[in-house]
Amino acid sequence: MHIPSPQKLPERLRPREPFITPEDLTRAASDPSYASRFVDLLISTGRMKAVCGEEPPLTPEQEAAARAIKGGPGGDEYTGPSRCALWPRHPRSHYAALRHLDPHTLWIKWRYPIGQLLILPDCDAVNDGQVCTHWLRHPGPHNYPGQGP
Predict the structure, then answer these.
(1) CA torsion angle 38 138 76 79 (round to 10)
(2) N or C: which end of the chain has fewer CB within 10 A?
(3) Rounded CA gap, 32 and 127, in Å?
(4) Residue 117: phi, psi to the nearest 5?
(5) 3-state secondary structure the chain
(6) Considering only CA atoms, which of 45, 79, 62 is closest in space to residue 113?
(7) Distant-in-sequence, close-in-space partners of 130: CB < 8 Å, separation ≥ 6
């Protein structure tokens, strides 16, 4: 399949800059350093979601504890486990929010097969009126509502 250069497309069909070429994809497949920068580009331009998506190994006892913990006035009810909220290919442990407790959030941190429940203060970063959905001093980029799954 031939992919035309963006300059040859009508203005209304031209992709947002920077344009991703087949050569970019080929190089990303063979060069890990380039692949990492390529993924960062995809995330920053909104072409890729900035989340890992791994499912937590939540035990029945941990789920019962998540339901029992009392939250503040703006806290949420427990609705079940979410997926890892960190960026793709992140190192070390996974983290998934279980429920907002106001002004903290109950998270599960895991490396298979062990998971531990943590109550962490909410991140205070704000972008265009949206508050980051991670915890205070989290690793990696901020994540704002609508960016994850």
Answers:
(1) 50
(2) N
(3) 30
(4) -85, 140
(5) CCCCCHHHCCHHHCCCCCCCCHHHHHHHHHCHHHHHHHHHHHHHCCCCCCCCCCCCCCCHHHHHHHHHCCCCCCCCCCCCCCCCCCCCCCCCCEEEEEEECCCEEEEEEEECCEEEEEEEEECCCEECCEECCCECCCCCCCCCCCCCC
(6) 62
(7) 144, 145, 146
First to last CA, the chain: 31
For residue 107, give the amino acid letter: W
Tokens linked to 99: 């429920």
- Look up residue 68 and give its amino acid: A
Q: What pLDDT, in 10s, does the model give residues 60-99?
A: 999 999 989 888 788 888 877 788 888 777 888 999 999 9
Is there a contact between 69 and 106 (Cβ–Cβ < 8 Å)? yes
